[in-house]
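ugh ok fine here u go
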Amino acid sequence: MLSVAVIVVLSYLIGSFPTSIIVGKILKGIDIREHGSGNAGGTNVFRVLGAGPGIFVMLFDALKGFIATFWVSRIVIDSMPDIGMIMIVAGVSAMLGHIWTIFARFRGGKGVGTAAGMLAALFPTALLICLAVFFVVLLMSRIVSISSMAAAITLPITLSVFRYVLHMPVQTSLYVFSFIAAALIIYTHRSNIKRLMNGTENKIGKKKSSSRS
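structure:
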């Protein structure tokens, strides 16, 4: 149990690394949460600081999820019978760290990038399908929040098809996690959902509204 506790703490701290906030401070001397949508995530960095910094933050946030899930979980690989469950615990801890970072008064991002990195370590095929849905919806709607939520909802649907239609091996722990992850990502987009209902959500290529997430 001590090893599991260490994994949880390390993964949370890795996820808590405030990539977007540090990039904002280094490049412009700003707190990214005080600009654009007010969110400490890659999309807002893309919006405020440009494509280069935005892509860097997105990739680094994904790397946090991958490192926690693929490497930090290995601390107990020889002592735990269900390494898949431990990998999920590590990944979820990193997601929670990203969303509620201890290094920035528990105001982080929405967890999408870190969840993608986690899924890359757990089930790369499902990640590719979710990414495809993300980009298709983005091209159609030009709204990142809708694309992110669509990709999140796609995960449990994809694993359901793999498990019950194609009869592919999908761990029960991963299957259950897919629903929890989708619900968590939708929860972190609750302010975006309100703006979508009001018709004020930002679109790529259009002038930003003054609303904040």
